[in-house]
Design goal:
The structure is a single chain. The protein is α+β, with helices and mostly antiparallel strands and 345 residues long. Strands 4, 5, 8, 9, 10 and 11 form a six-stranded antiparallel β-sheet that branches. The protein has a four-stranded antiparallel β-sheet with strand order 3-2-6-7, sandwiched between helices. A two-stranded antiparallel sheet has the order 1-12. α3 runs antiparallel to α4 and α5 packs parallel to α7. The chain is elongated.
Length: 345
């Protein structure tokens, strides 16, 4: 009797214990569990145990996540660049997730990367809701005088090229513009193959949408605020501006006509290619937070610009006042000297 009781207890205890995940066959974990996880969950699972860390670090898992998130990563040029990253697609994913930049890389000049970046790769994806509009990869050479000296402007479309969006055009009224602002999502990943780093320059959703009545177009503005650098004469903040221009005819589809990117300082001056490269490389090494507050950050930046413009105008008014007083004093002095000279005669 006691023997039966003991056997039953052991059996119940054995059946009552939870089976650890590591006891499941690795092929089942890889094929049926990890493939269903998103990137943050996959990264969290990797910290549970050494076994899961090894399984969650599989390159194929992260390649599939990147390819499903950004179609442009399937381009051979992008694939080759990612293959040189320290942890391949996993490193690329966390580099390329839209973020808010809070602190610049403060390394002294002699500790900055010494390798010369010869090209930048733009991997750009535009979606309307969940439907892709286009995916493009643009390679920009960075060692020529045409890049280093003039203001940087990266354009993805030529004048005759357009891309149809899966949305019926009616008119650019307020409701339609609001719909575009909520539904048109952009990713612009800038890759530095030499430094083996990347950064997403887009705010994901537009921070503003404006209608241009003369051309009957809508311009969507995507902005990321990057830390400035004293090395380029701007120690405050830099605005990375991506403009998407859409047009359409009544009863037809909306067409994307222009996608371009440049960088501006707080005075609205477009940075040169050389200065933009410094800002980009600094952003790739900056502290980032995955907050997704692109529009709020943009509004804060615009408020700082207004305050700076106000201070500049105040200084200019004071300078004008001082100059006017000096002119009056000089005039009075000359007049007094002239009158004295007449009196002496």
């Amino acid at each position: 009797m006691s023997s039966c009781s003991s056997s039953t207890t052991t059996s119940t205890a054995a059946h009552g214990r939870a089976t650890p995940i590591t006891a499941v066959h690795h092929d089942i974990i890889e094929a049926h569990i990890l493939t269903r996880l998103d990137a943050p969950t996959l990264a969290s699972a990797a910290s549970v145990s050494r076994t899961l860390h090894a399984l969650c670090s599989e390159e194929k898992l992260w390649r599939d996540i990147c390819n499903s998130t950004w179609t442009s990563t399937s381009d051979p040029r992008v694939r080759h660049a990612i293959s040189t990253f320290p942890n391949g697609y996993r490193s690329f994913f966390f580099d390329s997730t839209p973020a808010t930049f809070h602190r610049a890389n403060t390394l002294p000049p002699d500790q900055h990367p010494q390798s010369v970046t010869t090209q930048l790769i733009s991997a750009v994806d535009l979606h309307f809701e969940k439907e892709p509009i286009f995916s493009k990869v643009e390679v920009t050479e960075t060692v020529s005088k045409d890049f280093m000296g003039p203001p940087l402007l990266v354009e993805l479309f030529n004048r005759k090229e357009t891309a149809p969006a899966p949305v019926q055009f009616d008119s650019f009224n307020d409701d339609f513009l609001s719909h575009l602002q909520q539904s048109m999502k952009l990713s612009w990943i800038m890759i530095d193959p030499t430094q083996k780093r990347a950064v997403n320059l887009s705010s994901l959703k537009p921070v503003s949408v404006e209608r241009h009545y003369m051309a009957d177009e809508a311009q969507l503005l995507y902005v990321t605020i990057l830390p400035g650098s004293r090395r380029v004469g701007s120690s405050e903040f830099v605005e990375c501006r991506i403009v998407v221009t859409c047009g359409g005819e009544e009863g037809g589809e909306v067409h994307v006509r222009e996608v371009s990117m440049n960088m501006q300082d707080m005075d609205g001056v477009i940075l040169s290619g050389e200065d933009s490269l410094v800002i980009l490389q600094q952003a790739m090494g900056s502290e980032r937070r995955k907050e997704g507050k692109g529009r709020e950050r943009y509004e804060e930046f615009m408020e700082m610009k207004r305050e700076k413009r106000g201070r500049k105008q105040t200084r200019e008014k004071r300078l004008d006042l001082v100059c006017m007083i000096l002119r009056v004093m000089i005039f009075v002095t000359l007049l007094w000297a002239f009158l004295l000279s007449l009196g002496s005669v």
